[in-house]
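cache lookup: miss for this entity combination. No prior model stored, computing from scratch. Input as submitted by user K.M.:
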Amino acid sequence: MKVNADLRLKDVPGQLVFALEPISTNDGNIVGVVHHRDVVIGGHITVNVTFEVRSDRMLQRILDTWKERDIDVARMGSLYETFPIECLLVGDISSQELNNIMEEIEAMEDMESVDVRYSVSAASDGKAAIVFGKVRKKEAVERVERLLEERAADGGFLLVRGLGD
Amino acid sequence: MDLVIVGFGVVGQGVAEVIQQKREFLHDAFRKKTRIVGVFDSSSYETNKTGLDPSALIKRKASKNKVGKRRYDGDAWRILGALEYDTLIEVTPTNIVSGEPGFTNIATALKSGKNVITSNKGPLALRFRELSDAARKNNVQLRFEATVGGAMPIINLSRELLRGEKILSIRGILNGTCNFILDRMMEEGLPFAQALREAQDMGIAEKDPSYDIDGDDSACKVAILANAIFGLDKKYSDVKKTGIRGVTEDAISLAEEEKKVIRLIGEISPKRLEVAPRLVRIGHPLSIGGTRNIVQIHTDLAGEITVAGKGAGKYETASAILSDLVALLNENKKSRVIRR
């Protein structure tokens, strides 16, 4: 997911690095930074930063760190319209199989973010994993669902798709 | 209007009771007597040109386990041809393998120029086109509101009240048993087998629950909606179906952590004809619990229309049959006015 945000920083040396560092520590990719050094309001300057982040969870971690560091997020928005994907896989799925599926999804076109969470059941055939994320095109939702349908049919596990709204 | 009821189980008896209960209303509204002139169960029947007493029929069925004094071989259609009546109410049990005896009963009535009202999904989920063609050819009506969603009005709503709309898709919960089981799994953290047992103990699920939990019942309803509302020619076997047997406690709790529930959803859209468990956001209309049915109709002008209601039961099914009967009486009244 590509995110654009306006941050208000104290106009003191080291603040810019202090603000950008949580992005890189959370596997984000900084695409651009515009530093408005000439506009100082109440001892604060505005920095516009554009970055890519792998998942909503990673973005939340970045936001949490900014909050801890007293960095004010004046505005934030996603740069693209995105469509949610959410599918539950139920059955005896090995972690290797799930990793393979995730790699295939990540490699697909128009993926914005994708993540997976597992259940902690002891019963092997009752296990569940939820795959969720965002894509930039509606067709990509269908591609992901088609892939999961094929894998579910091959692996004999149940696929529970999201409703899409 | 003279009626013949074929099938005198829970639904047939409910219909007889409701016809008696609504006798005055029907007479006042349509200025015409509505009488039951014939009634059949699987091994006996009774006829009377001047009308049978619904209470006496129900009493006889309860005491003798037979609705009539006359015995027959179970092929009601052989006798139907010789009877004088206006409308057949066909409420024999659904058979999704052959559609019988419902199919032949309905076809016989239509071919002899009688209207038919049915709650029997089998004939419509297997051979819809043949029956609707027969109705058209003989200039009579085949009405089947009770086949989908019990008391929830969906077929007549879509075909009559929303006639000017283009219906783009329909999706919803079409089986109360599955919904009850999935709801109990989430609310009480029950494993599937236990929630199913509870449903069986409460009379919500059958002893053999396969027809419900494997998605067959919902698939029949999806096929009927696809044919009746979208004008398709689909059979029950054309519906891609996945039941709820594979839904585990882990799946339910993982969904809940994401503020979702799992519901068995039937969907009819240009891309899909499907019954499958789906993730539904908590608070979404389709996330309702209990045994109710709910359907969302997506149209070009009105947008989303949602209807809900009790999906099964003696009086709920009789209510849907009554709505079809009223529609027929209304048509009759209109044509009487035009003739004058």
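stored under new cache key. DSSP finds 13 helices and 13 strands in chain B.
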